[in-house]
Amino acid sequence: MTRRTRRVLVTLAIGLPLLAALPWIASPVVVQFGINMLIMATLAQGWNIIGGYTGYSSFGNSVFFGLGAYGVGIAMAQFEQPFWIGLGLGLLLAVIFALAIGLPVLRLKGHYFAIATLGLAEVVTAIVSNVPIAGQNVGLVLPLLKSDVLFYELSLGLLLLATLTVFWLSRSRFGLGLIAIRENEEAAAVMGVNTTRYKILAFMLSAALTSLAGGVYAYYITFIDPAGAFDISLNVKMIIMAVFGGPGTVLGPVAGALLLSVLSEVLASKVTNIAGLFFGLVIIVAVVLMPRGLADLLQKFRRSGWRYFAQNIRSHRL
Amino acid sequence: MTKILQGHHLTKRFRGLVALHDVSFELNRGEILGLIGPNGAGKSTLVSLISGTLTPTSGALTFEGRSLLKITTHHRAHLGIGRTFQVMKPFPGLSVLDNVCVGALFGRDGGEHRLEAAREAAHACLEFVGLGHRVHQRAEALGGPDRKRLELAKALAMKPKLLLCDEVMAGLNHVEIEEVIEVIRKVRDQGISILVIEHVMKAIQSLSDRLLVLHHGEKIADGPPREVLADPRVVEAYLGRRRS
Question: Total structural domains in chain A?
Fold first, then answer.
């Protein structure tokens, strides 16, 4: 435990100043790329709480993202409120939504939970498209703030908040309760874990972080519409990044998001047309060779060497 | 003696199948009650009704004088009911210590909330069942006998008043069975009431103060081990009718 703690702290101490200094040394294009990357990392980290730690593969997180975005959009474009109010509004919307929807949906397990949450995005898109205050299907235009450095640092702060939350989780009673639910829900209940309450709290925590990222993103791109804000492919990206890095670990999802963002950016600039193809290939190879993510690879590769990959292929009967 | 657990006319139906039919029983404080019966007799079903993973179709169940029927599974753990599973349910991805730690953190009265104190309690439980040397291994790395011990340690870490042991000796050899019997006796000496399901007849005979026999979901005998095992109905349930 102490060694793991030290690793997290050292990574933060080295990584954080480097990331924070980036906007002052890099070109605007890189900064814009950085904002997207940091927001993706925050989303992956938010998904990590419900998907990685609790073991419930949520496809509803893009809804939380959208609600966060619309909170900012409605507050700023319709009521001319400051950004912070909008952020709070989005947070409130997302957390209440997680509570209301979590009660029925978190009774489902495995694939059924995934399918039920998958439907949510469609439903919410349809609802928002018909709400006048949310600009219906035309969308909302937010006031322009041309300061990429500010958005960059804001996104970085958000990622730090998400990572510290997960770090606290990983060494708390609450977190161990969530892991127990993931590993065996029936046994967890028999041992005294209030599984219903814990699952809903995890869902709400995940929703809170995700909605904040959505709020920042909305202000950054200054325009939101239902199709963009509740985009289900964003949810797929969160899952890919979290799982690639290592679900249920503190730094895995962040590492996964940073690496995959860079990779897809490089591919997009080198082989423009078929970048998606290469990206897909990387994902497939990663899933086959290291199904438990980078974190597990780093941990076990030292001991098993190249056999690690062979073991994975064998144990998952591919 | 005061009664810690009482069941009145418990029935459990799974659609057409009657797993338990009109079973009444009681467990005295500080007693070891052996629950036996052939496969499919309804033993594990009864344990699940008590621990709360199943709800009875009809009947009543009281623990320390209060009805359990409306009480959720995790709340029963807080009241002091701990169980092991016949089909072991460890948390495979966690270390052996953290597995037991979950019991210490969430068990009776909501458990010990401080992580370090819970770890120490968990460590003591693992020493108690003889797993002290494997605390840092992953639970999935343990073999059969050690998994049985782990199940026991997890339940004990909850500091239960009532311990339900579902076949903790199955698959163990003679030496290991002796060790587990010794552990269970020591648990009883701490004042914990115990319900043991077991197939190993010799073990349960020497361990139990009283035996309860189920057959096809019905109670066919209840009393001191020697008397119960001599009961013709019990002999018939296990060995079949003598042809003469």
Answer: 1
Q: Which structural domains are found in chain B, ordered by start?
A: 3-89+160-239 (3.40.50.300)
| Structural domain range at position A193 | 2-241
Tell me whether residues B74 and A195 touch, CB distance under 8 A: yes
pLDDT exceeds 80 at position B36: yes
Q: Among residues 174-193 of chain A, which lie with CB inside 8 Å of chain B?
A: 176-177, 179-180, 182-184, 186-193
H/E element, A131: none
Q: A121: which residues sit within 8 A by CB, 6+ positions away?
A: A59, A60, A62, A63, A66, A230, A232, A235
**What pLDDT score was predicted for residue B97?**
94
Q: Is A5 on the interface with B (CB under 8 A)?
A: no
Q: Which of A258, A61, A261, A69 is nearest to A163 (CA)?
A: A258
Nearest to B61 by CA among B107, B5, B143: B5
Q: What is the pLDDT of residue B2?
A: 86
Contacts of A169 (CB under 8 A, 6+ apart): A49, A53, A175, A178
> Is the pLDDT assigned to residue A317 strictly greater than 80?
no
Say what the pLDDT of residue B153 is. 94
- Residue A93 pLDDT: 96
Question: What is the pLDDT at residue B140?
Answer: 86
Using the predicted structure, report yes or no on whether residue A305 has a pLDDT greater than 60: yes
Q: Which pLDDT belongs to residue A194?
A: 95
Identify the residue whose tokens are 């005294």: A192
Is A274 within the bounds of a domain? no
Chain B neighbors of A172, CB-CB under 8 A: 115
The pLDDT, as a whole number, for residue A138 is 85
A191: which chain B residues are within 8 Å (Cβ-Cβ)? Answer: 74, 77, 82, 102-103, 106-107, 154-155, 158
DSSP-derived secondary structure letter, A202: H
Flag whether A302 is in a domain.
no
Neighbouring CB atoms inside 10 A of A80's CB total 9
- Residue A209 pLDDT grade (very low, low, confident, very high; cuts 50, 70, 90): very high
Is residue A147 assigned to a domain? yes
From A5-14, A248-257, B148-157, B216-225, the region with the lowest mean pLDDT:
A5-14
Domain presence at residue A301: no
Closest chain B C-alpha to A160 CA, distance in angstroms: 24
Q: What is the structure's pLDDT at A316?
A: 67
Lowest-confidence region among A103-112, A306-315, B159-168: A306-315
Give me the pLDDT at residue A55, please: 93
How many Å apart are CA B97 and CA B132, to the nearest integer? 9
